[in-house]
Amino acid sequence: MIRHTINLKERSYPICITTNFDELGKTVLSLRTGKKILVVTDENVDRFHSEECIKRLEESGFEVFKHVLAPGEEYKTLDAVYEIYKKLVEYKLDRNSSLVALGGGVVGDISGFAAATYMRGIHFIQIPTTMLSQADSSVGGKTGVDFDGHKNAIGAFYQPRLVFMNINTIKTLPKREVSAGLAEVVKHGLIMDAEYCEYLSDNAGKIFAFDENVLQYLAKRNVSIKGQVVEQDEKENDLRAVLNLGHTIGHAVETAMDFKLLHGECVSIGIVGAFRLSHRMEVLPESIVEQVKALLVKLELPVSLPGMDVDKVFQQIFYDKKVKDNKLKFVLPRRIGEVFQYTVEDTELVKKVLADIAK
Predict the structure, then answer these.
(1) What is the tens place of the pLDDT at every residue in 72-106?
(2) Annotation-wise, does 106 bind a ligand?
(3) Would the annotation count 130 as a binding residue?
(4) Domain match, 209 and 297 both
(5) Model-wide pTM > 0.85
(6) 260 is in an annotated binding site
(7) Is 171 annotated as a binding residue?
(8) Binding site annotation covers 5?
(9) Is 188 annotated as belonging to a binding site?
């Protein structure tokens, strides 16, 4: 088992990276929490992993209950949180009990928000089962739900007590979802580690072949890069915003397309948009844009969205949480491995970039 600690003083927590669930019960037991646990999962993950996870927890003496969500971003709502609250009350979980999120980013976001707000906060444990959640969303404490068509409009920063990653869970995913998760993996390299991008390009085949050594290295490098940023800026006051590379355009595309595209696919398109914007601002040459596009294509990610409604996406960008005083703030690349934040006042420039993506 590989262990990595996110250092946030009294909110510090371990990330355990392994190839099975054998040590799950013992690891949770080491937290010295109460004995009641509610496992929240979704219908897809439930079929593959719930039984073993619950068995391991019960072997360590926990009393375990389960709540199953409908899968998909469209169910990431306050109604879903309400149903979790009902189960927490029904099973009499108290402030020393734990809520476990077993699943991808949607399950983690919903469950984390429920854990943050039930009894003003109970123990929260992440067991991410997708490439996307293992690479990104399970680490850093962002929780929340969509509201009235706006992504992550309601939420809280709430750190887990533990993140337990079994990298082999991604074998149960459709290939499209593995690729979508790799968008966040690439993002980490693009913001802080050019050599990591080269590693991803060289090992794309091994990733899709589920090579355990490669997948464990990816998980360790991802949490190391993201952890480094979160440790310096837990609540996204400044530095942590760099983790949003590709997300300003990506979230707008995701919402404008009514969530028909996967989150990672939209982030990939958004990354291309950010690199195109830097190129149009004469920060970097077109050859770098093409290099990044080639990497994304190698990982079977989209780099454009032909026919996209440019005006609709442009209007949606203004709902981004980084918008201040109606001005668009972007995370932009200076080169592969380095980014900067920039307020773009030339809205026509942004529209030109969106038109590039729509070709």
Answers:
(1) 999 999 999 999 999 999 999 999 999 999 999 99
(2) yes
(3) yes
(4) yes
(5) yes
(6) no
(7) yes
(8) no
(9) no
